[in-house]
């Protein structure tokens, strides 16, 4: 019998994302094909969240970051 499943590898075991029709302790011969889609999403997630926040700041934010951070310059 052949089944195609998706699973997550947690450094020790593969955890199927759906129910698998197998008997307990059944020997299997997995063929692994990785998907980098999850890693691409993870790498972009923080930037996506920040961009989605539509943050606004003063025009000189990058030039006077330390002043704003230390409170020596107030944001209008």
Written description of the protein model:
- The chain has 76 residues and is an alpha+beta fold.
- The protein has one domain (7-70).
- Helices cover 29% and strands 8% of the residues.
- The protein contains 2 helices and 2 strands; from the N terminus they run ββαα.
- It has helices at residues 37-52, 65-70, and strands spanning 7-9, 14-16.
- A two-stranded antiparallel ribbon has the order 1-2.
- The radius of gyration is 24 Å and the shape is rod-shaped.
- The mean pLDDT is 81.
Characteristics:
76 residues, alpha+beta, 2 strands
- Roughly how many Å apart are the termini? 68 Å
Largest sheet: 2 strands, antiparallel
Number of strands: 2
Separate helix tally:
2
**Using only CA atoms, what is the Rg?**
24 Å
Task: State the helicity in percent bands.
Answer: 25-40%
Mean pLDDT: 81
Low-confidence stretches: none
Share in β-strands: 5-15%
Strand order across the largest sheet: 1-2
Shape: rod-shaped
What is the total number of structural domains? 1
Sketch the topology as an H/E string, one letter per element.
Answer: EEHH
Structural class: alpha+beta
């Amino acid at each position: 019998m052949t089944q195609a499943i998706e699973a997550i590898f947690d450094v020790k075991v593969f955890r199927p994302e759906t129910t698998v029709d197998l008997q307990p302790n059944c020997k299997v011969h997995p063929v692994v094909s990785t998907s980098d889609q999850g890693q691409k999403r993870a790498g972009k997630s923080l930037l996506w969240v920040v961009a989605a926040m539509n943050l606004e700041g003063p025009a000189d934010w990058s030039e006077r970051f330390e002043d704003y951070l230390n409170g020596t310059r107030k944001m209008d």
